[in-house]
Write a structure and sequence with these properties.
about 40% helix; two-stranded antiparallel ribbon; 3-stranded antiparallel sheet; alpha+beta; 3 helices
């Protein structure tokens, strides 16, 4: 009789524990109170471009400065990967290699301003995270 009572109590306890593991919990997204706006500046020298004439060099500098601004935005959003390798022999530095890279997708950035100053073309970009959040709300189920 004691064994039957003990078996009943153990089975009741184990059955109660299994219901805790089978719960379905749904989480809701909360809208952040504020969204940051990140700006980036890209610059490219006009005379260093490989164009045939001044107009082509200007267009290439415009494109290069825009890409540079996007790279800066990606660095600020995703961070930068730094790889470094140092070689020391007999307490004397032999070589020092430093590489930096960034990888990411920037959506929703807009060009605020583009202009030339002397021999440099400059592009200013802006990434408003309120717009990024709204875009993600429409693309996710």
């Amino acid at each position: 009789m004691k064994n039957a009572g003990l078996a009943f109590i153990c089975s009741a306890l184990l059955a109660g524990c299994s219901q805790l593991a089978d719960r379905h919990i749904e989480y809701q997204q909360e809208v952040p109170l504020s969204f940051p706006v990140i700006t980036a500046l890209g610059a490219a020298p006009i005379s260093a471009q490989q164009g045939n004439d001044a107009t082509q060099r200007m267009l290439l500098a415009m494109r290069a400065s825009k890409l540079e601004a996007y790279r800066e935005l990606a660095e600020r959003v995703y961070g930068q990967r730094i790889d470094s390798q140092n070689t020391v022999s007999a307490m004397v530095a032999q070589s020092d290699v430093l590489e930096a890279s960034v990888q990411g997708v920037i959506r929703g950035a807009r060009v605020v301003k583009t202009y030339a100053v002397d021999d440099t073309y400059i592009t200013e970009l802006e990434l408003n995270f309120a717009e990024v959040y709204a875009t993600l709300q429409h693309t996710q189920p």
